[in-house]
Sequence to fold (362 residues):
Amino acid sequence: MKDLFRPTWAEIDLNSLAYNLKKLKEILGKSRLMFVVKANAYGHGIEEVSLFAQQNRLCDWLGVSSVEEGLLLRQKGIKLPVLVLGSVYPMKNFQAFAEHNLTPTISSLWGVKELDKTAMSLGKKINCHIKIETGMNRIGVSENAFKSIMSFLETSRNVCVQAAYSHFSSADCDRDYSLMQLNLFKKITAPYEKFIERHMANSAGALNFPRARFDMARCGWAAYGYVKGFKPAMSLKSRIVFIKNVKRGAFISYNKSYKAAKNMRVATIPAGYGDGYIRAFSNRGYVLIDGQKCPIVGNITMDMFMADISGLKKAQVGDEVVLMGKSGKEYIGPDFLASLADTIGYEITTLIMSRVPRIYKM
Ligand SMILES: Cc1ncc(COP(=O)(O)O)c(C=O)c1O
Fold:
C-alpha cells in the first residue's frame, strides 16, 4: 500500500467485485448484465471498477447518470456500451451522445424529436432506450406517449430504439407494488416485444422477481456486495493518531454532547464528515479495533472523531481502525451505518468523499 500522509482510506476488494458480478451473471442466465457505475460507482471509483469490469468481461453494459460520467468512461478507454440513465437536458447534449457513442434515455416525445433532428444534422444514426413510467414517477413516458414515440420512430431513419425500460421503486420492500409495476411494463411493451429489447430490474428486482429479468438487468447494490449472499467490496479504514486519558466528568468534542461517566482512554481517529463519515454517527456508532467494538464518543468533527478504547489496554497510536468493514468476527456494513442516520446504505458509500484515497486490492 502506498504511504498515506493522512492514514484514512477506502479499500476496494476487486476479488469481491468480480465474485459479485459473476454471481449476478449466473443468476441472470441469458439476460445481460448492466453494471451501474453512476455517482463514482456508488463511491467505489467509477474509472477503476469500470475498467476492471471491462478487462475481465464481467458485464455487458455500464449504466451512468450523466453525459459527464459517460464521457469520463470514454476518455479512460471504456469501449463497452454505456447507457445514460438520467434525463437528458439540455437537448444539445445529444451531439455529445453521438460523438462519444453514449446511449441516451428518452422519456418524452419532445426528446425523441430533438434526438431525431440532431441525428439528421450529424448524418449519424443514434440508438436510444425509452423509459416508461410504471410507478416510480421520476422520469418516464405514459403508455400513450410511448405509442406516439414508437409511431413517430417508424418514419425516422435516424433514431433507433434499442430497448424500452422501466424502474422499480420498491422491489426490496413491496412485492405487490412491484408486481403491479412489472405487469404494467409487460402490458405496455408487449406489442413491441419482437422489435425491441426490454429491461426493468435493479438488484432487488433481478433477485426477487425472475420474470423481471427480461433481456437485461441493471445492477449496482448487489454488484458492490451489500446484499445477502454477496461479498461487500468496500471497507473504510483509518489509524489511531492520538491517545489520551480523559477524567470522569470531562466533555469530549464540540458542543459538550458527551460527558465521561468514568475515567477513560480515548483514541482520536483522523476521519470526519469531511470524508463522508457523517455527523449523525456521533455518540451512536462504533468502530472496530482489533476485532473489538469501540463506541464513538462526542460529536464527529469535520476531520477527526474520538472513540472509547478503555477496553483495549494494548491499543496504541498507529493501530488500524475499521469504520466500515470487517475486523475479527465483527462487521460494520453500510446498511448498519445507515440505520444510525435514518438513511440508506447507498447514501453511506456514495458520500465517501474524493479526499479519501481508494486503494484497490486483488
Ligand atoms: C435507473 C436505475 N437502474 C438501476 C439502478 C441500480 O439499482 P441497484 O443499485 O439497486 O441495483 C439504479 C440505481 O439507483 C437506477 O437509478
Notes: The longest strand covers residues 320-327. The chain is about 30% helix and 25% strand. The domain at 234-361 is CATH 2.40.37.10 (Lyase, Ornithine Decarboxylase; Chain A, domain 1). The two ends are 12 Å apart (CA to CA).
